[in-house]
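note to self: dont lose this again. the chain is below, predicted strucutre after it. 131 aa total, dont forget to put it in the shared folder this time
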Amino acid sequence: MDAGASAIAAPDLGPTVMVVTTSHDTTLPADTDPRHVFVDAKFLQARWGKGRSAFYAYIDRIDGFPGQVVHGRWRLDHILAIEDGLAAGTVTVRPGTPKAGPSVVAEDDPELDDFLNPKAAKKDKAKAVQS
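---
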């Protein structure tokens, strides 16, 4: 781009959504006994199509999710039991926690306005002192 040209800003398309793609293989040989297979978080993230943060937030909300057998690894038969329970409705997933912050802001609340925009509050106070 030459020095005189200006950059064109991309349009705001709303929130960014991460698409999870992986080359991590989630298939196992048919003769594998799931009691003897240990899966890691990357395997489960790929299997469930979740990123790292969303994955850990999700397993924290699953009632009865098994603990790690070895650091960062779960037994496959435990995971299959959880997946079967989720499909059958016997295992529940608690709703996620809402993001912090006010969801509704009162229109006529000057204290809240001062709190949410302190720079504007300082300017308003400075104008009031000058007049």
